[in-house]
Structure formats: structure tokens, C-alpha cells
Write a structure and sequence with these properties.
The complex is a heterodimer. The mean pLDDT of chain A is 95. By secondary structure, chain A is of the alpha/beta class. In chain A, a hairpin with a 2-residue loop joins strand 7 and strand 8. The two termini of chain A are 40 Å apart. Chain A has an 8-stranded parallel beta sheet. Chain A has a 3-stranded mixed beta sheet with strand order 2-1-11. Chain A has one domain: Monomethylamine methyltransferase MtmB (TIM Barrel, Alpha-Beta Barrel), CATH 3.20.20.460. Chain A contains 16 helices and 17 strands. By secondary structure, chain B is of the alpha/beta class. Chain B has 2 domains: 82 residues, Methyltransferase, Methionine Synthase (B12-binding Domains), Chain A, domain 1; 121 residues, Rossmann fold (3-Layer(aba) Sandwich), CATH 3.40.50.280. In chain B, 57% of the residues lie in helices and 11% in strands. Chain B contains 9 helices and 5 strands. In chain B, strands 2-1-3-4-5 form a 5-stranded parallel beta sheet, sandwiched between helices. In chain B, strand 3, helix 7 and strand 4 form a beta-alpha-beta unit. In chain B, helix 3 runs antiparallel to helix 4 and helix 4 packs parallel to helix 5. The chains are: A alpha/beta, B alpha/beta. At the A-B interface, helix 2 of A face helix 4 and helix 7 of B.
Amino acid sequence: MQNNLLPMIVQLSESGPYMKEADFEKALSKRTAELVKQYSLKFSPQTPVPSDDDMADRLYQAGLDLFVEMGAYNQTTGRRIIFARNEVEELVGRARSRLVLGTGKDAVVMQHRNVESMTPAVVLSGPTGTPASEKYHPLILLSCAQEPLVDMLGAGSVSTYMGHQIIPGTPLEILGARRDAVVARDAVRKAGRPGMHISDVAVPLTCQGKMAAVDRDYGLRPSDAFLVSQMVELKTDYDQLSRVAYLQSIGMHIVDLMTPLIGGLGGGAEGTAVVTVACHILGVVLYDASYHMTSITHLRWVNNTDRMGLWMQASIGQALSRNTPIPALNDIYCVSGAGAEELLWEVAAAAVAGTPSGMNMQGAGCTGGFKTDHTTGLEARFLAEVTHACLGMSRKQANELVLELLNHYEKTFNEPNRGMPFPEVYDENTVEPKEVWLEKYHKVRNEIIKMGLDLDGGWRKVKHGQS
Amino acid sequence: MANLNDEIRTSLSEALAIGDSDAAIAFTRKALEQGAEPLDLIQQVIVPTLTRVGQDFQDFVIFLPELMLAGEAAEKVTSVLEEILFSSGKQTSSLGTVVIGAVENDVHDIGKNIVATLLRSHGFKVIDLGRDVSPSAFLDAAQKEKADVIAMSSLMTTTRPSTRSTINLFKEVGVRDQFKFIVGGGCVTQEWVTEIGGDGYAPDAASAVEICKAVLAK
């Protein structure tokens, strides 16, 4: 198969089997439930980090079957884009396993990670999925970019432009996209890391909005990335595919964003895991993605740090690690917010579940996206510390730790601690965390060190190559 | 309803809960043969069953596929009963007409679909406009369908302003007071709904049903 598949994808979008969208959803739900049974996939609340290689392989096969049989639904044409199994397998097999992200001294290498491996995991952070205000967005970005253990920056989203609500498809979207790109570039420059990889400017909802954020001097560059989204579940459209065309043509990284809903069309944890594996395959086949953002989302709490979410992260990570060459990225989404101890416990549990399962790390999405500005760089620092301390850890050990960590926050889901906005937990002038937030950070950090995680030594091994 | 065999009532309820449409229709016909009133079946079996199913969904006892199946079964049974009511010249039991949609530029419609399913199963007539619905499309549908409630969903902060512009359009053409507006979705809060002048905020799908009932009772 040739490298540029877009002509073929458009042709399949125009000629594939027609199906009403509601019927596609019903068929997907039905087939997913059958595959869960057929492959004997079983979620266990007591084992949020399973160590069952065979189940991981079965999960991958179920996801592959689902994608091959259902294809991807093009919402623009109402047709399914279907590739043959051998074509899908060939495309997955030749997917990139190692990426250089960013430029010069600030570039990092994101790579495929094996289960329980010592291969360093890279950490992406920023207010992705947590709304930020025009006023504090630059400071929030700087607070993340200046953290030495944060490898890449997600630029996040601001919904206003000079106080006016940004309406998609209008000039304000273009201006907002360019403004956010400039702010992100400025943040990495101020942090002394001008070549740091920037992953997406999230405000634009249209292809032209994304294109407007590309600016080699002041905005995003080919060494950065834009998200190309999937709509739940296994759906795309011509606007998303047009982004692929543009990004491919300028040599810019493509990030495959998926947001499978726990409790949604896939059903429970097992079915949603099957759908999520299929989403990764869609990202390889249709988007030629450099990396994949696994943003699974609980339908009720809008997080993925509950037992089902953690099990899914671990299982999906293992399934992808053992069966594909792709670098997977765990997008951690929490119910708590900056300034809350619970946020740190949530972040720790997700990092402990995902790292030994072969994932790279992204986070932390805070407050389920409900509170503006309740996000900072300190939880990103903590995420990186925990992630690096988990390298080489066995899944069995990770499971025991996660069960302990869950005790510290899972009872708060119905009445979460949303924490505080940025100016209450960070000094606006020095962009350093205030004592009120640092105290909690040190408290949780010390407790986690007592659980046996080497938060001081882990990152040193990564940065200095000791193993 | 006194004549209705308890066994049939239970069987119909169970068939609805597991989304077995064929069985549910068969039990409905059996109940009718035994003299059950269509309106009683709707109010005393279908609505309570779907309320329980909705609560189970809310509590994560069941998931969206099960909710969709139960909703579909309830819709099919209701349509059988409505046909009978119509042919006998009686009024159907709609609690009101709801025009629902994900607002302009918002392509996320799973939440909206869940709300639509629950509203239908509770006896509302639902006109689903889909996703990316412009303010003028809401207005046209509201007037054409003589709607009681306009239900808007917005997942993202970037699409949330459309909830305001939709209400503003209704104000501009002087029909705002003819309709009740309820708003929900990932980025929507009670504060936002108050700010834009909405009538009700639904934090989740189950509460959307209660909010619709409440705003219509005002």
C-alpha cells in the first residue's frame, strides 16, 4: 500500500456501505458485546492493573476484529470506511515506534514502550481538557513549561478573545487560535525551552482554525502537533480528514484524539476497552498519527481515575504494547482540581497503572473540565516524578499500589474536591506554587515515598541514564 | 388496571427493562386482551419501568447499550398503544413536546441522545434536531412543532455561547416567553444557565426529565 492513503480514504468514504448513524451505533454496541464474550474479557475491580498477558492479547484481537468489521463511520457521507484485515495489519505493522518531538536541545524522544520496561516514558502537560481564562492561560502554560520534568506542552483552550466569546467558524476563532499559539510559544521561550514540543492549540473547532495556528516564528511548527479527533465511537468526518491532509503535507505531527466513553456505546469497562483499541487502529489507518491520546472518559464523573478507568488504561496499554509498535499516551483525567490533595492521589494512581502497562503520560486534566483555571504545573511535576519512579515496576506491584492509592480519593467522586483557581495556589508574579499548594504536594509526596516509590531517584535515573 | 394480571404486568416490565421489544409488544397485546387500558399501561408500567432503567443507568448498574435497547422497546410499545388510543378517538398521554439538539458547532451528541431516549420513555414527544443545530433551526422547529420545551446541549466552552445566541434569537423575534429552555452538557453550569436566562439546568440525563416536568409545571 502506498504511503498517502487519503485518496483511497476519500474514495471509500464515497463508496463504502451506507448506514444511518444510529444504526451504526447500535451495530457497534451489539458487536462489541459479542466480542467481549467471544474473547472472554473480564474486568475485575480488585485488579485495576491486570498481569494477564493472554487477556491483553485477546483484547487487542477483539479491537482489531471490531475495526475490521465495523470500519470507521464518515459522518459527512454516512458511509463506512472499511479496510481489509490484511491491509489494517500491514498499516499497524509499519506504524512509527519512535518519534523525535520538538527541536534542538529541547527535543524529546517518545517511543513504544514494553510492558514493565525501563524505557523512559515522556510526560506531556498543560491545561488540556481544563478550561483556562484569557488572564491566567499564559501563566498556567508557563507553570507547566518551566517544570524540568515536563517534556512537552499542551496549549489547552481559552473560550474568549479580548473578552468576546469565540464563535467557531468566525474571525474570532482564527484570532483566538493564533493568540493561543503565540502564548504557548512564548511560554516555552520564557521557560528557556524554545524547541519544546507543543501538542495542539485546542480552541479552534474547524480545520481552518487549526491551520491558522501554524506559524514558524510565533505559533506552532512542524515539530509540534495538532489533534485530529474521532467522534464517539469510531467516527470521523471530512473536516477531521482534511486536517490530516494539511498536517501531512507540511510534515507536522498528527495526534489521534479519542474520547471513548466508559458506560457509553461500548458498555462497561471491557467493551469500552475493545472500542478504545479499535480507535487506536483507526488513528493508525486513517490519520497516520504520530502518537495517540487515550482520553477515555467516565460518562458520569468525566474522569478516568476510577477502577474501571484505571483497568482500561492498564489493559489497553498492555494490549497495544504487546501487539503494535505504536507509542501510546495515557491522558489522565481527574475529578479533583489544583490545590486538592485528591488530585495528587488520582494522578499517582493513573501513573502507576499506566507506566508499567507500556504507556507514556499526559496530565493532568482537572475537575472533569468543569472549573476554569483549576490547573497548574505542580501536579504535572508530580505526575512526572511518579511516572519515572514506576519504570521497571511489575504489574503485580503496580496493582497493589493502585489499590492503596484508590483509598485516598475514590470515595470523593460524587462530591469531588475541585480545588482552587490558579491565582490562589500560584504566585502570579513569580509563577511559583504558593505554600498552601506546596504543603499538600509534600504531604502526599512523602506518603507515597513511604509506600515504596522512589520519587527522588526515579527521575534521576531517567535523566542521567542510570538503570 | 384492576383486571391486569400481575404476572403480565411483571413480564412486560421485565421485557422492557432488558430491551426485548418483541416480548414487550407480545405482553402488551396480552394485557390489552385482558382489558387493560392503554393509558394505564403507559402510566403504570412503562413510565415506572423506564424510570427505574434510567436510575440504573445513572447509577452505572447498566450502560448506554442497555438504556438504548430499553428506550427502543418502550418506544415500540408506546406506538402500539398510541395507535389504539388514536383509533378509539382518545387523546394520547404526551407530557409535552421537547425540541432537543446539540447547539451550533457542537458535534458531540451522545449526551443529548441519552436525554432524548429518557424523555421519550417518560412520555414526552421529542423532536430531535441532531447536532450542530443553529439558533434559527431551533426556532423553526419550536414554532412548527408547537414545542413546550427547548432542550440544548453543549459539551465544550467554545460552543457554549450558542446556547445564549439561541435564546437571544427567540427574544429578538418576540417568542421567548412561549417556550421553556433547559440547558445541559459538559461545560454548562447552573450559573451559566442563569446568566443566559434559561429556565432550567440539567446536570445529568436523569435530571433532565425532572427539569422538563418542573419547568412545565410552572
